[in-house]
Amino acid sequence: MLNFLRHFAGVKTDQAMQAGLEALVRWDPKGATEAELRTMEEHLDDLGMEVAQARSAYDREQKEADAIRSLLNQRMAAAEMLQTQLSAEADPIRKGQLEKSLGTLLDMLEDMTPEVERETSEAADAKDFLGMLESTYADAGAKLKEARRQLERAERDLKRAEQQRELAERQAEAARRAAGLSSSTNSLNIALKAMNEAAAHDLAKADAAASKAKLLAPTRPEQDDPNIAAALAAASGRAPTAQSASERLARLKSLQG
Q1: C-alpha distances in angstroms, 161 versus 32, 52, 154, 166?
Q2: What does DSSP assign to residue 93?
Q3: Could you tell me the CA-to-CA distances from 210 to 204, 205, 219 in Å, in that order?
Q4: What is the distance between the alpha carbons of residues 210 and 41, in angstroms, rounded to a whole number?
Q5: Residue 98 vs residue 242, higher pLDDT
Q6: Interacting residues of 129 by C-beta distance below 8 A, sequence separation 6+
């Protein structure tokens, strides 16, 4: 039960850390990408150190293998020379000396053969290990380069999207302003139309009033001709206005009589 709880708590902690990491990445994807690239670069640097160490180890192993192989070849050549001398020697004493020397050299060759094989095998293993690390290093470098290229492309795409968004916002703002100006123009046109209509109506009323006043006003002959004026006054039931003192006196007498 305790083991279960410990493992369960560990899982929950890992999940919380993962959730926090994902939240951080969503909050700052560019920063998270840069951090990941730096981590990849650090790993590449570490791998580069391992490659350098492996290359140094391989060089050392190969030099040792070459040296012991060269010594083996020299001793083999010496043994072959002794064998040739031994075959041609007729003197028993000299022949015995050559046999002893050849035996000693053959013992040395037999003893060093396993060592030569071991050094050769170690050099081959070091070479294989170096090749594997170099391949891994090259792949890691290519991945880092590709990751940086993708980041640069993503940044360009993001910048292009921001520019397009800003352009769209400016176009939308221009459209709003154009719509507002159109609305204002329409309102102005409506107001001008109403004012013109009101002015036209007032002018029409003024013309009608002037025509009416002109129609109702006495004409020139009605004012200048006393007979027409008297007739109009009689027709309207009004006494004509006296034009002289004698006329005024006659009118007053007629009213008394």
Answers
A1: 20, 44, 10, 9
A2: H
A3: 10, 8, 14
A4: 99
A5: 98
A6: 54, 57, 58
Q: Return the pLDDT at 225.
A: 62
Nearest-5° Cα angle at 27, 24 to 33 = 70
Helix (H, G, I), strand (E, B) or coil at 238: coil
Cβ(229)–Cβ(221) below 8 Å: no
Instruction: Please name the fold of domain 2-184.
Output: Helix Hairpins (1.10.287)
Please give the full DSSP string across 71-90, using - where no structure is assigned: HHHHHHHHHHHHHHHHHH--
- Please identify which residue in the block is written with the tokens 């002959």: 221
The residue among 136, 132, 130 whose CA lies nearest residue 59 is: 130
Q: Which of 175, 178, 197 is nearest to 186 (CA)?
A: 178
What does the alpha-carbon distance between residue 34 and residue 38 come to, in Å, rounded to a whole number? 6
Distance CA 141, CA 43 (A): 10
Distance CA 44, CA 52 (A): 12
For the chain, which residues make up each domain, given as ranges?
A: 2-184, 220-256
Average pLDDT over residues 207-214: 65
Question: Encoding tokens for residue 89?
Answer: 């020697």
Mean pLDDT over the full length of the chain: 75
Q: pTM of this prediction?
A: 0.49
Query: How far out from the chain centre does Cα 256 lie?
Result: 116
Q: E strand or H helix at 98, and its extent? A: helix 92-216
- H/E stretch holding 256 reads helix 245-256
